[in-house]
Amino acid sequence: MNNKEFAQRMAKKTGLSAQQIAELQNAFIDNVVLEVRQGNVVSLQGFGNFDLKEKAARKMYNPTTQETVIIPARYTLGYKPSNTMKEKIKG
């Protein structure tokens, strides 16, 4: 499902326009990114938690060039689904 399909499906369920849903979706993403960048955990009851995870620097071996390359430490977005979400997915 892409953004357009998501907006259309949500528009049918809520009675809002697809454009309004797209604006809400963008605002939601912007707010989650802002909070996570500040080091906060975004917890949505029944959905899950978004947080910032730090990945340590590591060495990687490239078999083609036979070189060892160091991949620097970085941050990535973490998501942990809630128990409710896990149960809904199981069926």
List the helices and strands and how they pair.
Layout (H helix, E strand, L loop, with lengths): L2 H12 L3 H20 L4 E3 L3 E8 L2 E5 L4 E5 L2 E8 L1 H8 L1
Antiparallel strand pairs: 1-2, 2-5, 3-4
Helix pairs in contact: 1-2
The amount of helix comes to 40-55%
Question: Hey, roughly how much beta strand do the residues contain?
Answer: 25-35%
Strand order of the largest sheet: 1-2-5
Give the helix/strand class. alpha+beta
Low-confidence stretches: none
What does this structure look like?
The protein is an alpha+beta fold and 91 residues long. Helices cover 44% and strands 32% of the residues. It has helices at residues 3-14, 18-37, 83-90, and strands at residues 42-44, 48-55, 58-62, 67-71, 74-81. The strands form two sheets. A three-stranded antiparallel beta sheet has the order 1-2-5. It has a two-stranded antiparallel ribbon with strand order 3-4. A hairpin with a 4-residue loop joins strand 3 (58-62) and strand 4 (67-71). It is elongated, with a radius of gyration of 19 Å. The two termini are 20 Å apart.
